[in-house]
Design goal:
about 425 residues; alpha/beta; six-stranded parallel sheet; 14 helices
Length: about 425
């Protein structure tokens, strides 16, 4: 018989951290666009793999729109069902309107049938739906009437209000969020926004620090090396702001007492960008979580930019790039640039974790002053620890998430 823990306490509309131990694992089906080891999910994939690290493989199943080509990140599942999107149909750069119409008209109904069949065959007791792109319309057709309790995670609002596809994705994702048994988001700002509009409680679930990361931060920070190594992890979203940062770094390189290098980690190559200079920039490619963490520890700073304008407020004000957490894990002070209302700037203002710039006119001078400091890691160490403890404790978030899955399973049993 399934043992279900009591629900987490609710205080002021927020689900609070639970103290009861994890004691049971219902059959859990993850529903999202990307595969268990796929890099397409970016930071969201890393979050989900970290949160699932203690879930037994025999009770973990996955439904996605893309196949798993390898097990690069080491995520194992008992079964993986794929409602595959034809590569040429995916609406990215060319013929977007036509391809979106084809996806909605032909692929989405078929994917919904595929998902229903998956539920019949795998018989999950709980569903974890991550609201990402083309998994959304299929899930919207299936999950509410499935009789299975589901948990919804929203890590990003769909970013283009002018695009009908994105508007439909956003509406469907938020309707599923409101109807879910339990739910989570990636930032406090997003949690408050959805609570105000739908009057439902939720939790914050994002990449976090494990105990070994906290142990590492408790040690004395390593001293400065011969080179100032600045890291950038993941995909460049705020392209203009990143280019501004590179331009400022180029202007001050010769004025620093130590050589400066820029280190890139991720799947996307930047070698063809106008600002790329192989004499002081290096691409390291895609690394798994453990490799990336060790690589970042060898750097001195991490860059975490968001948009300086409010052209895309749904990204700026509500999303939190996973690279931010990766830098915390490695004890890296950050170069934060963005609009004053952006999540990263607000975080860097609340916790003194590095350099924070909202006016591009200040960027060059502030960079020169910050990068001239020989012991930057030691200076910001205590605030990095304080920030990590306050909002990025992975064990605490995982405990709440697992209890939410069991609440979904309890709901499923009531509907049988």
């Amino acid at each position: 018989m399934l043992t279900v823990c009591r629900p987490p306490a609710v205080e002021n509309g927020y689900l609070m951290t639970a103290s009861m131990p994890v004691s049971s694992f219902p059959r859990l089906l993850v529903v999202t666009e990307f595969s268990p080891n796929g890099s397409r999910g970016g930071g969201s994939g890393a979050v989900m793999r970290q949160m699932l690290k203690e879930w037994p493989t025999e009770g973990l199943f996955w439904w996605s729109c893309f196949p798993d080509h390898n097990r690069f990140f080491g995520q194992q599942v008992a079964a993986h069902r794929v409602a595959r999107i034809p590569y040429k149909w995916y609406p990215l750069h060319r013929w977007v309107a036509l391809k979106s119409w084809m996806m909605n008209t032909f692929w989405t109904p078929w994917a919904a049938r595929h998902l229903r069949k998956t539920l019949e065959v795998l018989k999950p007791e709980a569903i974890w739906f991550h609201a990402h792109a083309w998994a959304i319309p299929a899930a919207a057709r299936v999950l509410p009437g499935s009789g299975i309790g589901f948990h919804v995670s929203i890590h990003d609002y769909m970013g283009r209000p002018s695009c009908r596809c994105d508007r439909d994705f956003a509406r469907n994702a938020e309707e599923l969020y409101a109807r879910a048994v339990t739910r989570d988001v990636i930032s406090r700002q997003m949690l408050e926004d959805l609570r105000a509009r739908y009057n439902v409680p939720g939790t914050i679930n994002r990449a976090g620090l494990e105990q070994e990361d906290f142990d590492y931060l408790a040690q004395p920070s390593p001293g400065p090396g011969r080179t100032v190594r600045i890291a950038y992890a993941g995909t460049i979203i705020a392209a203009e702001e990143f280019a501004l940062t590179v331009q400022a770094l180029r202007q001050i390189r010769d004025q620093l007492s130590r050589p400066l290098t820029l280190e890139f980690y991720g799947t996307v190559s930047h070698a063809r960008e106008e600002w790329f200079d192989p004499t002081w920039m290096t691409e390291h490619g895609l690394l798994n979580a453990a490799e990336l963490k060790e690589a970042l520890k060898g750097c001195d700073w991490g860059i975490s930019p968001m948009h300086l304008s409010e052209d895309n407020p749904r990204y700026n004000r509500f999303s939190l790039p996973t690279k931010f957490v990766g830098y915390l894990q490695a004890g890296l002070p950050m170069i934060v640039i963005g609009h004053p209302e952006s999540t990263v700037v607000k975080m860097a203002t609340e916790y003194q974790i590095g350099l924070c710039v909202s006016d591009p006119q200040d960027l060059r001078a502030k960079l020169q002053a910050a990068l001239s400091e020989p012991a930057s890691k030691a200076r910001y160490r205590s605030e990095i620890q304080r920030c990590a403890r306050a909002g990025f404790d992975a064990r605490r978030m995982r405990t709440v998430l697992y209890e939410n899955f069991r609440l979904c399973a309890e709901q499923s049993s009531k509907q049988r």
